[in-house]
Amino acid sequence: MAETWGHSDEKTVNPIEDGDMDSLFVLPLSIIPLETPALRQAKLIKNARLLSVIEMFSDVQTGSGQVEIRDLPKLMNWPDDNIHPDHTVLRKLSTLHSYDVFSLRIMLRKTGVTVNDQKALQLSPEKNQELTEYMTQFTRPLIAEIYGGDNIKVDRFEDVVKLFRDPDVKRAKHRLQQMADALGIEIMGVPQFLEDYGDIFLSLSYYKQCLDQLYPLFDVFINSMYEIKQNYQMRQDQNLMKSCDMIESTINELTAAITGRFENFERSTKAMWDNISAERFQKVKDLIQAYHVTIGGVLCGLTVKMNAWVRLFPRPSSGGPVKRSEFIMTDIRQGLDNITKIEDSAPMMAALA
User: Fold this and answer.
1) E strands of the chain, at which residues?
2) Domain-by-domain residue ranges, the chain?
């Protein structure tokens, strides 16, 4: 088991909510060149059963107005004689496992779906700021390698870039040359390296934060299943008991797999700095990018499931064993095998040579 989940006190646990472009499970359709005005104002989201649906509106009072993609032709009054191009695009988007920006960059190319502006596939400045702590572990070896014992203070990756924009042109050129020499590349290639370096480790920081945010939700959910399994009435339902065991085992296996990948990435990153070069960095970059779709898909599925649970049962006393059991057997169990399939379809892990 990857984790041993303990009992939590009586407190409210909130679902994971991010801005649209920072989310694993929300795709604002405003970034997709659709013909139908009403759809350009909508969002494509993953529901609790991991089905992609169109969210036409969402409000605290009215709730979420969701439409299945197959029902769009009738709702939008599209002609019956031809498949509307928006319908084709949305059906392609509905097959994606995650809507995080890093997975989208890869999968939109593969599916042939365009965006209005490639710059839209970026995390928000607020999310970038949130990830500062995660990024620090990746900026430290960069600074140590290039500047050695120099007393350089770096708190954010942006500070690394600023080091090469020193008002002292001579000193800035010296720093650029230091990095170019260490990487074995031309000095003009350093800015692109910095951009690639920042982006690839930003993606890793993003996914690690997503996993860390899930742990409190796992704790609440596993505790709830433990209480169900201790309930005399519920224990008589063998199908429910087997489902609870299967779900707990699946969550542990998936989190263990993702954690193992992060550990492998960390080892590969450390090995890269033992003999840094542009080629070795490219290998690490390719290694991490190869798992964007897998990690994004698994984290998206688990986040959607856990969010659905804590929304319905925000406190240990919320609901009752019957209502909780019903939700486990329907919304939680359904689609969980698809998350496992995403994990099983991942490429073989290869360490940095």
Assistant:
1) 26-28, 43-46, 52-59, 63-68
2) 1-22+123-353, 26-97
